[in-house]
């Protein structure tokens, strides 16, 4: 069936048969199914890795250099308004716990919290002026991923799967690699298809053990018996279809079993990290206990992208609670960030280097985000310099790297103490609009009809941040 | 010029009224369509508001095109800027100005008329339902009922014809899956066929039988639960499980099975607790209002501004769901501004939120009064019995106690006697729950019980609390004699002094920062030091005291001896009179999370100053008059031991009776509160309050809007809302529902967007049929079963599903229904069919759902890890699954089960390799294939031909041909029957219904 016909069909509600027919297409790629299909303009990037730090990374301890904060250490916040913080405690200002230095030719300021990432500073495009709509972790994480604070909306990866499809039939378009210590709060809601068809949901993959669920029979049936079942399925379906010629949905289902067989070969292959040289493994920190875990995830992510997966999302950090296994440093920043950063620093730097040397960074995006930032004042009594920082939605930092970006560039800024974004304020809508733009998508044109509205990732907002584009 | 205009308007009033109409019907719609997006509102472009006559007069000069700036701009193609007017549109303006530019209704109401970009009051779905006569058709022999007249007339008009009737066994399978979601039973297939061949029309009778079966409600309730975003957990960060959300699901099943009239069905879901306040079922029906997510963290946060946003999000969920479910109207789109596409104003949106402003999430106790009274009587009797037993025991123990204490005092003699200072409060829970000083009773919560050895706190969310304390408290000492049930537990408190909201507290905490260690409550990480005392190893009662000195020093004592090292904290807490309360077992409010103790509190004391070490020792010494039961028993003689044991047993039994939970029938439903004031919020922003609004409806429906006063009671608001929605003249109410029924029978509705009949939704393929059905629905007393019967007995429904290339060329989407589209079973129907065919379906009706996950709680966050277990408890119909929002099921998801966080009036049907892998390899499917094989052997013996025949009857609802048997025989003989059974589950014929 021609693409136009297909679109006509979806528009008239025979989505089922039509979607299925995607699988019968002769082309090598499974295209997206958006009504106004991208690319809307020539794309800079063809794929993306999204590294999500759960719990909120402190901007003033990592990517937002604030010398004034050092000077004001131990003073109280001078503000006309009482800060509206999550736990209600506003202590004294606290200087950064890690020293900042300038790095690379660009001279970007990055703290010693991320010494390895600092060494690839010239690859980064840092946004220092992000703001979020809430300082409550889970709604903020939903917004970071879906643009909305509520449950039930599709995530960036699901939108890309819908808009761009996959470049391979053998692997899913959208893969999620959760932190091995635990899933983020909300679990699968964080990679939900929302109201998009279920096939756009993120497929969780593990970097150790069985990579995805139900890839092989839950118990060993023996190769002959397994083969026999497949042959029988094919035979039953061929006969059934022969009596119902013309029904594309039935043909698509037959084809899905052929593709499943190919996926059974492709997934173990991509997940076999031993195929990489020891030098590469070392580049990702696989040989160090603190970074081996996240390093495996990063390496798997690169292998997935290489084979045509559209979007890989890596989570650093899991649920909230005690003991902390994420970036939520309420009690003690040194202890918390000091524990989390070494897990990811070398793997991420290694990933950027590896993508660069393979030439993949020319058409791959790397996104490094966190749901919001942390307060420059501590979470403690009013006359105390505490050791922890509370949630801060008013100013925080994220960075991007790769295709189509101005490298070694810093965009926007917060006030002198790193509390509130002040100059060139950017929000998630802008961030998402920019990411889509780099992938050849006009964020106002990638839509899906749901209950009365042509829904967008960016709701009714979003401006592409032109200044960070190359 | 000006005065001339005045004269014209005055002198030709009659002509003007015709011209007014002309303006309203032709000119105004054009202005609305093409001009007023920019030229109206609070800040119109160029300060020109073309909805207002006075403003327009600046640019429209009657009978003078040259002076009319409007015309000059339009003619030059400058306005509208992006897409100039067509010649026809220009001509309208020209004629209008030339003929005097008469103005009709002033100002123009942009909602009045539908334009090319938005719906007005004249939108098709908003017009009253009119019952059309079934149209005439050429092929008079085809129609079986009026539905077919509408369908055939359209087919004939399109140059198409209907497909022939489907064969009887295929129709039978279609009816079964369609009406019950289960495969047909093979055992009466032959009877059905005989009846059919005898010309006895068993089709209608079968439909009646299926509609009368319980499975019908179980099937169709699932469709409804999709529409209303039914989930059984909160979602968001903590995703707390709602243990008692299932009564709503059962209510829906039962209501559908009883064929409850749809208007009553709707009314009870909006206001069941108001309309039938004594009926537990009707209260459960309001589970509809709160079936969506609930952001418990957002509601509990410190930031008031963000809390207000969370509440507005919650109201949008409720109002949006009501609008889409019952009206097919996306009213929630008017939260920030007037609806961009449908005639709903922002003010009307807020009037609707006012109607549900009393709606709050929560659990309600709906226990019937007689049950409760009987329970209370039983309780009183047990209590009296227990008192008696305890008194007898005390008499028996008294001399022994005296003896033991006498011995103890001998050992301790020589120590200085320190008199204990006066405490603020003191409890001996072995005696009662009363504060021995103030005489007030501690309140027990969530499973806390008083037993003879103290206050039992089984963990979970159990705790006890006091009323606010009358005394102001600065320096303080907390002491408790506590027996830990489990030394590995983390984070509970024996005793806590907290501010009423739990924001400030001093507490005796166990194992929070370090497992096994006692510490002072950390008060939200302000005091994070440890005493560095040893880990607790004693499972018996210990006396713990923590002293809070005025200078901030905090010291701890265990059994009267210093525990670890004291340390100094900043800002010691002070509480005003009535500003503090005591908690037993809970670190601080709110309830939940890792803050509850699993232990028994024997005694507890609160002092209003820092006790000296000597005083602590004395307090602990008092505690030492606690004597372990074992020690008493050791001192008894043989007969005494036996009597003691009997008494203890009797007491334990009586305590069990006392601890029995009340017959609480709890349901997750609306727990109304006095509604907050509702303001129009500019841009939806809670800080931008506009005018105060009372509850009311949407004018576009053509009904009275029921505007209420701003202080109306919640009950009145929701009652009115329910009446307004179910008004027989409501044009949307019946239309939307009959379309849902049609949608599920045919895979697509007459309107393809079942929850949106607005401008962005689909247009009806057969508008007359939709109206005829809607009218029929109302006339039948809103009987859903009546509509089902009409549909499934129609010739349209009974058509063959075979594909025809010629027809497909004209109508690929089968919009005109030239065949019955084959349908892929939904996820739940696939799973239920597998269970049924394998002979494993557990047909237990209703009640708490099965849980195919392991629930772990970390912090307060609930995690749902899928589990695989071979037990009939999990083999119930999928509608009885517990649908936690983050607890999804891989197999069901692969088959397009929707996310319960979002309303799903129409499910996607996708075919993916991951779905194939799930169906092939999932542990459940493999096990069921084995069971299916076992069943075949049992029912068909060892003959492969008979086994295959039985498999076809069970799985496909038909007999296998010889050729089909021959084709699969070699594989079965070589690899076993299960290999074939697994293939059957994966076959297209199994998951598709013709």
Account of the protein in words:
The complex is a heterodimer of chains A (470) and B (994). In chain A, helix 2 (15-21) packs across helix 8 and helix 7 (223-242) packs antiparallel against helix 8 (248-271). Chain A has a single domain (34-468), classed as Alkaline Phosphatase, subunit A, CATH 3.40.720. Chain A contains 12 helices and 16 strands. Chain A has helices at residues 3-11, 15-21, 67-71, 115-119, 137-146, 156-164, 223-242, 248-271, 278-283, 292-306, 333-357, 428-438, and strands spanning 47-53, 100-103, 108-111, 124-130, 174-177, 203-204, 311-316, 364-370, 373-378, 389-392, 396-402, 409-411, 413-414, 421-423, 448-450, 453-455. In chain A, strand 13 (413-414) and strand 14 (421-423) form a beta hairpin. Chain A has 470 residues and is α/β, with parallel strands linked by helices. The longest helix of chain A is centred in the C-terminal third of the chain and has 25 residues, at 333-357. Chain A has an 8-stranded mixed β-sheet, with helices on both faces. Chain A has a two-stranded antiparallel sheet with strand order 2-3. Chain A has a two-stranded antiparallel sheet with strand order 9-10. With 994 residues, chain B is an alpha+beta fold. Chain B has 6 domains: 2-110, no CATH class; 168-212; 261-364 and 673-730, no CATH class; 367-418 and 627-662; 419-611, Jelly Rolls (Sandwich); 824-993, no CATH class. Chain B contains 33 helices and 23 strands. In chain B, helix 2 (13-34) runs antiparallel to helix 5, helix 22 packs across helix 24 (784-792) and helix 30 runs parallel beside helix 32 (977-986). Chain B is globular, with a radius of gyration of 37 Å. In chain B, 50% of the residues are buried. At the A-B interface, helix 1, helix 2, helix 5, helix 7 and helix 8 of A face helix 15, strand 22, helix 27, helix 28 and helix 31 of B.
């Amino acid at each position: 069936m021609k693409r136009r016909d297909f679109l006509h069909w979806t528009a008239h509600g025979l989505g089922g048969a039509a979607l299925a027919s995607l699988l019968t297409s002769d082309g090598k790629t499974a295209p997206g199914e958006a009504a106004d299909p991208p690319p809307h303009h020539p794309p800079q990037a063809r794929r993306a890795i999204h590294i999500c730090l759960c719990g909120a990374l402190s901007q003033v301890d990592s990517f937002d250099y604030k010398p004034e904060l050092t000077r004001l250490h131990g003073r109280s916040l001078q503000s006309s308004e009482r800060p509206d913080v999550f736990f209600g405690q506003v202590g004294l200002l606290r200087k950064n716990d890690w020293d900042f230095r300038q790095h690379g030719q660009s001279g970007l300021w990055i703290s010693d919290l991320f010494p390895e990432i600092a060494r690839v500073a010239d690859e980064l495009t840092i946004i220092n002026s992000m703001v979020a709509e809430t300082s409550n972790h889970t709604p903020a994480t939903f917004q970071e991923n879906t643009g909305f604070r509520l449950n039930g909306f599709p995530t960036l990866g699901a939108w890309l799967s819908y808009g761009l499809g996959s470049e391979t039939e053998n692997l899913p378009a959208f893969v999620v690699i959760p932190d091995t210590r635990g899933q983020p709060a909300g679990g699968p809601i964080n990679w939900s298809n929302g109201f998009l068809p279920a096939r756009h949901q993120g497929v969780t993959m593990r970097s150790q053990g069985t990579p995805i669920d139900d890839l092989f029979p839950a118990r060993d049936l023996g190769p002959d018996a397994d083969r026999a079942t497949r042959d029988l399925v094919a035979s039953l379906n061929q006969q059934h279809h022969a009596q119902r010629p013309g029904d594309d949905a039935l043909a698509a289902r037959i084809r899905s079993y052929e593709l499943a067989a190919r996926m059974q070969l492709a997934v173990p292959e991509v997940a076999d990290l031993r195929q990489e040289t020891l030098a590469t493994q070392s580049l990702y920190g696989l040989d160090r206990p603190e970074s081996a875990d996240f390093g495996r995830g990063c390496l798997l992510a690169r292998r997935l992208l290489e084979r045509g997966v559209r979007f890989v999302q890596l989570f650093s950090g899991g649920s909230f609670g005690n003991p902390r296994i994420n970036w939520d440093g309420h009690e003690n920043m040194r202890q918390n960030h000091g524990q989390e950063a070494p897990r990811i620093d070398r793997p991420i730097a290694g990933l950027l280097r590896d993508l660069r040397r393979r030439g993949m960074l020319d058409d791959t995006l790397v996104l490094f985000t966190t749901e919001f930032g942390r307060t420059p004042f501590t979470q403690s009594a009013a006359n105390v310099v505490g050791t922890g920082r509370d949630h801060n939605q008013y100013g925080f930092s994220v960075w991007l790297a790769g295709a189509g970006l101005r490298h070694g560039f810093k965009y926007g800024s917060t006030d002198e103490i790193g509390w509130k974004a002040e100059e060139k304020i950017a929000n998630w809508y802008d961030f998402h609009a920019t990411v889509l733009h780099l992938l050849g998508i006009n964020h106002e044109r990638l839509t899906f009809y749901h209950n009365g509205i042509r829904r967008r990732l960016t709701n009714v907002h979003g401006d592409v941040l032109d200044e960070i584009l190359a | 010029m000006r005065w001339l205009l005045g004269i014209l308007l005055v002198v030709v009033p009659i002509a003007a009224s015709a011209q007014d109409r002309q303006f309203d019907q032709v000119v105004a719609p054009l202005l609305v369509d093409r001009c007023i997006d920019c030229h109206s509102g609070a800040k119109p472009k160029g300060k020109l508001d073309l909805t207002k006559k006075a403003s327009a007069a600046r640019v429209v000069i009657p009978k003078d095109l040259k002076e009319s700036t409007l015309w000059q701009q339009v003619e030059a193609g400058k306005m509208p800027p992006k897409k100039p007017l067509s010649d026809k549109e220009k001509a309208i303006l020209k004629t209008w100005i030339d003929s005097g530019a008469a103005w009709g209704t002033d100002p123009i109401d942009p909602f009045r008329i539908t334009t090319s970009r938005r719906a007005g009051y004249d939108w098709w779905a908003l017009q009253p339902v009119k019952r059309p006569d079934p149209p005439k058709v050429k092929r008079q022999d085809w129609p079986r009922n009026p539905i077919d007249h509408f369908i055939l007339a359209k087919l004939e008009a399109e140059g198409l014809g209907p497909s022939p009737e489907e064969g009887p066994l295929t129709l039978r399978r279609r009816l079964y899956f369609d009406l019950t979601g289960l495969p047909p039973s093979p055992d009466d297939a032959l009877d059905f066929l005989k009846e059919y061949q005898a010309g006895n029309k068993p089709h209608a009778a079968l439909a009646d039988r299926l509609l009368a079966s319980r499975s019908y409600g179980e099937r169709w309730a699932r469709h409804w639960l999709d529409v209303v975003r039914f989930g059984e957990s909160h979602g968001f960060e903590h995703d707390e499980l709602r243990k008692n959300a299932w009564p709503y699901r059962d209510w829906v099943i039962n209501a559908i099975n009883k064929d409850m009239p749809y208007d009553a069905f709707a009314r009870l879901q909006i206001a069941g607790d108001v309309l039938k306040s004594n009926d537990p079922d009707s209260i459960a029906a309001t589970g509809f209002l709160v079936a969506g997510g609930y952001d418990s963290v957002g509601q509990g946060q410190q930031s008031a501004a963000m809390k207000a946003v969370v509440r507005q999000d919650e109201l949008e969920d409720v109002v949006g769901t009501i609008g889409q479910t019952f009206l097919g109207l996306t009213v929630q789109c008017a939260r920030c501004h007037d609806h961009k596409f449908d005639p709903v104003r922002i003010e009307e949106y807020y009037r609707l939120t006012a109607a549900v402003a009393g709606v709050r999430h929560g659990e309600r106790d709906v226990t019937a009064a007689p049950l409760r009274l009987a329970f209370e009587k039983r309780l009183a009797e047990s209590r009296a019995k227990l008192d008696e037993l305890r008194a007898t025991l005390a008499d028996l123990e008294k001399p022994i106690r005296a003896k033991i204490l006498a011995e103890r005092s001998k050992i301790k003699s020589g120590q200085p006697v320190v008199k204990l200072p006066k405490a603020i409060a003191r409890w001996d829970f072995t005696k009662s729950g009363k504060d021995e000083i103030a005489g007030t009773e501690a309140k027990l919560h969530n499973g806390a019980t008083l037993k003879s050895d103290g206050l039992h706190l089984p963990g979970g969310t159990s705790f006890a609390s006091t009323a606010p304390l009358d005394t102001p408290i600065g320096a303080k000492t907390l002491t408790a004699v506590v027996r830990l049930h489990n030394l590995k537990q983390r984070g509970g408190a024996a005793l806590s002094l907290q501010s009423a909201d739990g924001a400030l507290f001093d507490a005796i905490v166990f194992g929070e920062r370090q497992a096994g260690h006692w510490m002072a409550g950390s008060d939200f990480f302000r005091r994070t030091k440890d005493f560095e005392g040893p880990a607790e190893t004693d499972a018996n009662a210990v006396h713990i005291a923590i002293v809070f000195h005025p200078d901030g020093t905090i010291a701890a004592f265990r059994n009267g001896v210093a525990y670890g090292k004291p340390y100094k904290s900043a800002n010691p807490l002070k509480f005003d009179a009535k500003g503090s309360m005591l908690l037993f077992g809970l670190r601080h409010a709110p309830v939940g999370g890792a803050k509850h103790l699993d232990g028994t509190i024997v005694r507890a004391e609160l002092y209003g100053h820092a006790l000296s070490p000597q005083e602590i020792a004395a307090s602990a010494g008092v505690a030492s008059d606690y004597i372990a039961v074992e020690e008493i028993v050791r001192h008894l003689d043989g007969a005494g031991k036996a009597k003691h044991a009997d008494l203890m047993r009797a007491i334990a039994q009586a305590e069990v009776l006392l601890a029995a939970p009340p017959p609480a029938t709890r349901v997750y439903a609306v727990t109304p509160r006095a509604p907050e004031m509702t303001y129009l919020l500019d841009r939806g922003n809670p800080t931008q309050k506009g005018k105060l609004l009372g509850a009311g409806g949407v004018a576009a429906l053509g009904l009275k809007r029921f505007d209420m006063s701003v202080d109306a009671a919640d009950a009145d608001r929701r009652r009115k809302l329910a009446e307004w929605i179910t008004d027989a003249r409501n044009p949307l109410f019946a239309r939307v529902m009959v379309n849902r029924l049609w949608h599920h029978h045919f895979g697509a509705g007459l309107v393809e967007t079942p929850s949106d009949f607005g401008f962005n939704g689909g247009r009806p393929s057969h508008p007359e049929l939709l109206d005829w059905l809607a009218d029929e629905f109302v006339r039948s007393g809103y009987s859903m079963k009546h509509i089902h019967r009409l549909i499934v007995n129609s010739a349209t429904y009974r058509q063959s599903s075979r594909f025809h290339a010629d027809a497909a060329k004209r109508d690929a989407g089968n919009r005109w229904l030239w065949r019955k589209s084959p349908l892929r079973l939904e996820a739940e129907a696939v799973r239920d069919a597998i269970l049924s065919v394998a002979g494993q379906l557990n047909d237990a009706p209703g009640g708490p759902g099965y849980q195919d996950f392991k629930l772990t709680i970390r912090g307060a966050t609930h995690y749902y890890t899928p589990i695989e277990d071979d037990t009939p408890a999990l083999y119930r119909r999928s509608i009885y699954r517990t649908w936690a929002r983050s607890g999804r099921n891989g197999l069901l998801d692969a088959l397009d089960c929707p996310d319960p966080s979002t309303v799903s009036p129409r499910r996607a049907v996708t075919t993916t390799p991951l779905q194939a892998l799930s169906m092939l390899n999932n542990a459940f499917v493999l096990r069921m294939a084995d069971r299916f094989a076992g069943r075949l052997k049992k029912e068909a013996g060892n003959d492969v031909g008979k086994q295959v025949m039985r498999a076809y009857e069970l799985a496909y609802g038909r007999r296998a041909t010889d050729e089909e048997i021959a084709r699969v025989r070699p594989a079965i003989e070589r690899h076993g029957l299960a290999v074939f059974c697994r293939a059957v589950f994966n076959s297209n014929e199994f998951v598709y219904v013709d």
